[in-house]
TrEMBL record:
The keyword Membrane applies. One of its GO terms (cellular component) is membrane. The keyword Protein transport does not apply. GO terms for molecular function: mechanosensitive monoatomic ion channel activity. The chain crosses the membrane at residues 6-30, 42-61, 114-135. Keywords: Membrane, Transmembrane, Transmembrane helix. This is PIEZ2 protein. It comes from the Eukaryota.
Amino acid sequence: FSVLLLLHVISILFLCFQVSLFNFVFLIAWALALPYAQFRPLASSICTVWTCVIIVCKMLYQLTSIDPSTFSSNCTLPGENETKVNLEELKTSVLYSGPVDPAEWVGLRKSYPLLVYLRNNLLMLAILAFEVTIYRHQEYYRCRNNLTAPVTKTIFHDITRAHLDDGLVNCVKYFINYFFYKF
């Protein structure tokens, strides 16, 4: 299980994402680290620190001294000649139905209970901590037993594209190695 986690940790992390400006840092870090394997530990460290920053920011935003209504604003409906969209549809849009909190674009909102609100970030932090633990354990094990790290960074090192059509077992091995990478 641990090797499978290391192989697909990026895909698992992206399942925990919420669309916001905060998560743009994760996208940039992993986009730069994917082509270059030597930058993956750095990207993992950056994402761990950034997840902690997000958690602290979300917790601070819950303070009673922060009132979103003071900086929220209403968007004005466009005139009939200014848009091709039906005005009845625009009235049901989130932008025009009430005040819009700009902090939600960043990734902050008032929420209760706080633990449910922080669930995805805490899950990301746990996965990243687990990844570092496994990575360090494997590195220590290889160093202690004078083993070299596998070149392909896959579970089944002898399975390639040429083995895909050799049978069901080899097909499953290939997909375990490359499913998230290929698809």
